[in-house]
Design brief:
This protein is mostly helical and about 140 residues long. The chain has 6 helices and 4 strands. Strand 1 and strand 2 form a beta hairpin.
Length: about 140
């Protein structure tokens, strides 16, 4: 019994979100504030995708982070704005199609995961982490 592409995406994202809901002071070397802010950036990117399954997962992930967050929302709002600005550049990750090498397929999950390393989004993340650090102690 196989999974459809959409089911697999939902299960993978749900697994990541489920793992993130467990609250501890550090998660394998990452502070909670870093995990939450980076996760919020990725979730914001997913919400902006055209596919409803990614949008729903991103919205759920962002909501989970907001519900457990320990600081104000202004810092996260600034991160989401940086993500939207980067998305406007249209640098979506692409791969050649397996059945038709002349066709390209978008990789929105990879793109959103790697978006946190672009200079503008990383700067917003770093600023938000510094702003929220005291609330997470």
């Amino acid at each position: 019994m196989g999974f459809s592409h959409i089911q697999l995406v939902r299960y993978l994202i749900a697994a990541v979100v489920g793992c993130m809901v467990v609250a501890t002071s550090k998660v394998h070397g990452r502070d909670l504030v870093q995990r939450d802010v980076e996760g919020y950036a990725i979730a914001s990117c997913l919400v902006a995708q055209g596919r409803s399954d990614l949008k729903d997962q991103g919205d759920g992930w962002a909501s989970a982070i907001i519900q457990r967050s320990r600081g104000g929302l202004d810092s996260l709002t600034a991160v989401a704005a940086a993500v939207r600005a980067e998305l406007a550049k249209g640098n979506m990750a692409m791969i050649r199609g397996e059945t038709d090498p002349t066709k390209q397929n978008s990789l929105p999950i990879m793109y959103c995961a790697e978006l946190i390393d672009t200079p503008s989004v990383r700067a917003a993340i770093d600023k938000a982490e510094k702003s929220l650090a005291r609330s997470y102690r």
